[in-house]
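Intended use. Records like the one below are meant for learning the mapping from a protein sequence to its folded structure. Do not use them to infer anything beyond what is encoded.
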Amino acid sequence: MTVDEVAGAPTPLPPPALSGRAARLTSTHGRPLWLMWPNLILLTAVIVIPFLIGVYISFLDLDQYTLRKFFKAPFVGFQNYIEAFTSAGLLHSIWVSLAFSLLTTAVCTPIGLLAAMAVNTAFRGRFLVRSLFLVPYVIPSFVTATVWRFIFQPSGAANSLLDMFGIDGGQWLIGDRAFWALVIVDIWAAWPFIYMMTIAGLQSIPNEMYEAADLDGTTWFQKIRFVALPQIRGQLLLGLLLSTLAHFNNFTLPYVLLGSPAPTPALTLPVNVYQTSFQVFRFGLGAAMAVISLILMIIPAVFYLRASKLTAAVGED
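Structure written out for the chain above:
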């Protein structure tokens, strides 16, 4: 096709303007907004409405006696929140959950990093090794907690192993050791999450960067520090945040492993909310504790999102 033919070609007409109603039902990219209505309705029914009901319950003196007259239960304002901080053991449970989540994430991170870097290079049987690394993560938490509950029994495999070295294992599921038993089990089950986040970032790094580092005579540790880690910083920080929040809000593992009521040294916040609501039947107090738990998890997420936006803005400049 010649230049004259291109110049003489008719100019395509612009798309016709939409009417007022059609414009309201269509996004700026020409996609119909009404397709989002089923998702919005589902999210409202499953998340928004139960959340609002929970907030409303947190301001009521709702227990097993006033549950039958739900809408006529006494309104107590912020009394449940005050009681949660003063006499319901909320501060202790927050401290236990915070220590549990931070300690578990701190141990899982180097394990996941080393595992991801070990299988990042090609070798025979790499697919099998990658699959085996995911086994602890894909096992349901209920199964994991049940198996480890047998392992930590006084006559279980853990004490039998310690007896071989002349160490008295004692009780793992009660007393002060219950916290460390919970940490050990969660580390075993959760480190593959950091591994998956890291391996996804490592696979996006071009091989040319490693080749350039080899030409400069860098060591293996220097390639990890100056090439790999800066490239996967975003994925790794997101993995650390999600891992910490997941540990903080983990209910199934401590509940199945330690039972209920849980030992005081291992009384995490989700288990405390459950015991207050469904064993003591203080539904208003339990709802207040649940709202506080949600606020505590939102705070680090907000800081991460703000930091990500600032980083993206600096990168564009």
